[in-house]
Please model this.
Amino acid sequence: MAWNEPGNKDKDPWNNNKGGKNQGPPDLDDLLKDLGNKFGGIFGGKPSGGGSGKSFSSLGISLVLIIAVLVYAFSGFYTIKEAEKGLVLRFGQYAGVVEPGLRWKWTFIDRIIPVDMQTTRDLPSAGFMLTQDENVVRVEMQIQYRVVDPRAYIFSVTNADDSLSQSLDSALRYVIGHSKMDDVLTSGREIVRQAVWTELENIIKPYNLGLIIVDVNFKDARPPEEVKDSFDDAIAAQEDEIRYLREAEAYARGIEPRARGRVKRIEQEAIAYKEQTVLDAEGEVARFEKMLPEYQAAPEVTRKRLYLATMEKVYSNTSKVMVDVDGGNNMIYLPLDKIMQQQPNYQNVIPQTSPSTSNTGQPTRAASSSSRADRFDNGRD
Model:
C-alpha cells in the first residue's frame, strides 16, 4: 500500500504534516533546522528548537572552519628544487636547512628562502687602473663562484654578491697597482691572474660570505686608445726580441753538437794517425832488424836485391816504351808526346819514378835503394 493512500498517513516520509491534508514536500526552514541540529551534534553542541536563522548561522560557521583548515593545510606544502637548499625562518629567526624535495611548513609562521647551491655564477670587473710604473691600462677580468654555505650567504652580510663584486674590484686594483704595464699586457698575465685570485680569497675570508671561487679569467688588458698604436709597436718589438732569442738558442743548439762532433772526429783521426805512425815505425825497425843479418852475411847480394826490388816497384807505376836499336844506326823518330798523353798518370809518376842517368848513359840506383844500403852499412859499422 502506498504511503499517500487513505488510511496510511503515518508513513509519510516527510513526517511534517501528520494531522493535515497537505501531502507536499517539507518546508525549507524545517530542513535547515534539522541539518543544523545534526551538525551541532557532531561538533559537541545540543540540538536547538530555536528559529531557523540561528541554525543556519551555526552551519555556515562550521563549513567556513572546515574550509579554512583545509586551505591552511594545503597552503603549507612547498617544493625545494634539486640544485637548491631551503633556509627555514620561524618568526623571522633561523631554524634550520631543508634538503630538496616536497616539504611542509607552518603557514604564516615559517618562511622558506631557497638558495641555489650548484649553479656557477659569473661576476665581471673592468676599469682603467694605474700600474706600478705609472701607466694607465684598462683591465677586464671575470670570476666564477658558487654558494657552499647557504646560511652564511644569506645572513653574514647584507648582499653577498655585492660584497664579492667590491672585493674583486679592490683585489684587481691592488694587483695591477703592484705590477708593471709590460707584464700586464704581455708575459705576466698568468702571474696577475693568480695574484688576483689569491688576493680576492684573502679579502673575503674574514667576511665568511659562504662562497667559493671556482676560477678567475683574465679577459683583456689594453692601453688607452690614444696611445694604443705606440704600445702595439712596443709589444711587437718585444715579441721580435723573444723570437730572435729563440732562433739564436736553436742555432746554438744546432751548431754546438756539430762542432763537438768535428772535434771528436779530429781527435780520433789524430789518435789513429799516431797509432799508424808508431806501428809503421815499429814495422820498419822490425824489418831492418831482420834484414841486417842477411846484409852482414852478403852485403853485395843484399844491396843488389834491394836495388832490383826498388826498381821493380818504381817501374811498375810508369809508362814504358821499348825500342830495338840493334837493327841499324838510323835515327828513329817516335811520337813520344802522343804516347805519353795516352797515359793519364804519366805527369804524376814520371818525376817520382824515372831513374836518373849518369854521364855514361847508364841508369843509377834508386834513392830508396841507396838509402837502405847506407842504413845497412851504418848498422854494420
